[in-house]
Amino acid sequence: MLHNIEPHTFNNSFLENATEQEDDYILCYKENSILLLQAEHDFVIPRRRDFDEPFSDATHYLFSLDGVPCFLLKEYGGSNAAFVYHDHQFLRTMPNRELSYIGAVGFHFHLWQDEHKFCSRCGTKTTFKKSERAILCPACELTVYPKISPAIIVAITCGNKILLAKGTHYKFNFYSLVAGYSDIGETLEQTVVREVKEEVGIEIKNLRYYASQPWPFSSSMMIGFFAEADDKQPIVIDTNEIHDAQWYSRDALPETPGNISIAGEMIELFRQGKHERLL
């Protein structure tokens, strides 16, 4: 999965009063795009030494990769032709998984900061808090912590079949697992039952937790489950969310997500028959 970057190490411990050095990574975003450096055969996350000019905005320490600090730069105003903005989804295709991951987690921070430029209580321009990872209103002292939305994702099986669904989102033309955000006042298990009923109209049984995955692209924490269901139940899709949903045998699967996502990993476990030990 995206966050599995071993033997590289990711450390998100908060660090006060950090300043960038020549070898440190610089993460800069513009709307839904990330600033990358054109290397010899690929695009990489730039380091401080790759910038010729001083920064017009202060940087903010985020985390480290293999002990190398990573900083958020709010805006790049230079004209270096080697720098290119790519849509954040490009990170999913980068060959260096560790760079993909820090770019994605940085994007999560960018979204959070961008949504809280001004205080939602009094309208004052906000700042980063110096003592912890939070955004602070200097006027009314409202403190906002990073947004992390819990979402379930469930692989529903029946013998050698798995229920896969294609969403209505135009960007992704593949089949995946039923998923949805947890709502107020419900457990994760209740979320699974509700989302399955809402999206494909069936009942499930033998629900088992599998694993979790931070998914920075949507500021989410994905919580994966396996479950079973009777494939004779009629599938009734929510056409606002789902374009199509069908049962597929493990030897005739349609195009599905890659293994950087928990969905892709769970579907692959089913394809290999390794999911059965979890049921």
Automatic annotation (TrEMBL):
Its cofactor is Mg(2+). Its EC number is 3.6.1.22. This is NAD(+) diphosphatase. It comes from the Bacteria. Keywords: Hydrolase, Magnesium, Metal-binding, NAD. The keyword Protein biosynthesis does not apply. It comes from Williamwhitmania taraxaci. GO terms for molecular function: hydrolase activity; metal ion binding. InterPro entries: NudC-like_C, NUDIX_hydrolase-like_dom_sf, NUDIX_hydrolase_CS, NUDIX_hydrolase_dom, Znr_NADH_PPase. The keyword Metal-binding applies. Residues 146-274 form the Nudix hydrolase domain.
